[in-house]
């Protein structure tokens, strides 16, 4: 069976360390997805390891539009995929699979009640995809937090708010650099403040640093959020997620 293909419609510099890619299916058919899902791109072969270079990218554009979609790619000096993608020319084709993400695609999630969207670092892309989705369009009981380092330049905050309705606010919190032993404790203190203001969190989606995600997930479960109502998408520090109500890239 021939691989599915995407066509690169547009590539633009988005932040000091990132590029925004607008993609569409090569056969021009609609790209159906649900906000919060992701695609896996096969950008070429690793000639040293003799295997395909595949990477998962959250879809950050709205699922209300199916003629094309957008992903944001952080340029990494040692990133095999990002180094190939940054040189990709408009009109080029890319093999892909997806969209993936059964949890985000579950039509019964989120249930009624307060929903917490909690992202760290580059996990902001999953959060943006959810906030722009059809299922969140009419919800008023959603709170969103983005924990990022002081030097984070993946997506500038002004551009983040350009994606969203002006009435919606993502609260930003500064945390130490990746690798710091203080990151988890600070993240838990942020969650405790949230729980003090919102006694019950009925649903949650956590994305970004897997070490933080696991700690936040455990605390939410202890505070009575149903485990099956908590979705996770670990971008790094993936570790092992055993909950039947979670998924990860």
Give the assembly state of these chains: single chain
Just name the CATH architecture of the largest domain.
Answer: 3-Layer(aba) Sandwich
Mean pLDDT: 91
CATH superfamily of the largest domain, please? Nucleotide-binding domain of ferredoxin-NADP reductase (FNR) module
How much of the sequence lies in strands comes to 25-35%
Total number of domains: 2
The unreliable regions are 241-249
Strand order of the largest sheet: 4-3-6-1-2-5
Question: What share of residues is helical?
Answer: 10-25%
- In CATH, the topology of the largest domain is named Rossmann fold
**Structural class of the helix and strand makeup?**
alpha/beta
Measured distance between first and last alpha carbons = 24 Å
DSSP helical segment count: 6
Question: H/E series, N to C?
Answer: EEEEEHEHEHEHEHEHE
Cofactor: FAD
GO molecular function: 2 iron, 2 sulfur cluster binding; flavin adenine dinucleotide binding; metal ion binding; oxidoreductase activity
Protein name: FAD-dependent oxidoreductase
Keywords: 2Fe-2S, FAD, Flavoprotein, Iron, Iron-sulfur, Metal-binding, Oxidoreductase
List the helices and strands and how they pair.
Elements: E1 4-15, E2 18-25, E3 38-46, E4 51-58, E5 69-74, H1 80-85, E6 93-100, H2 102-105, E7 115-120, H3 124-131, E8 142-148, H4 157-163, E9 170-174, H5 183-197, E10 203-209, H6 210-222, E11 230-236
Parallel strand pairs: 7-8, 7-10, 8-9, 10-11
Antiparallel strand pairs: 1-2, 1-6, 2-5, 3-4, 3-6
Helix pairs in contact: 5-6
Pfam families: FAD_binding_6
Cofactor: FAD
Domain FAD-binding FR-type: 1-106
């Amino acid at each position: 069976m021939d691989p599915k293909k995407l066509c690169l419609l547009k590539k633009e510099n988005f932040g000091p360390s990132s590029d925004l890619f607008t993609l569409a299916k090569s056969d021009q058919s609609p790209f159906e997805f649900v906000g919060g899902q992701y695609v896996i791109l096969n950008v070429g072969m690793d000639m040293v390891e003799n295997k395909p270079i595949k990477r998962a990218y959250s879809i950050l554009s709205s699922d209300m539009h199916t003629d094309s979609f957008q992903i944001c790619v952080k340029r990494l000096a040692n990133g095999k995929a990002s180094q190939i993608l940054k040189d990709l020319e408009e009109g080029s084709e890319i093999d892909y699979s997806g969209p993936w993400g059964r949890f985000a695609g579950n039509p019964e999630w989120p249930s009624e009640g307060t929903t917490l969207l909690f992202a760290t670092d580059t996990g902001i892309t999953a959060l943006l995809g959810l906030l722009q989705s059809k299922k969140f369009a009419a919800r008023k009981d959603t709170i969103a937090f983005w924990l990022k380092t002081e030097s984070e330049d993946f997506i500038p905050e002004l551009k983040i708010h350009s994606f969203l309705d002006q009435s919606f606010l993502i609260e930003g919190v500064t945390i130490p650099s990746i690798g710091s032993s203080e990151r988890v404790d600070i993240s838990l203190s942020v969650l405790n403040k949230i729980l003090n203001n919102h006694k019950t969190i009925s649903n949650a989606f956590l994305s970004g640093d897997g070490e933080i995600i696991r700690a936040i997930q455990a605390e939410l479960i202890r505070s009575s959020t149903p485990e099956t109502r908590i979705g996770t998408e670990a971008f790094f520090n993936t570790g092992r997620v055993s909950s039947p109500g979670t998924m990860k890239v």
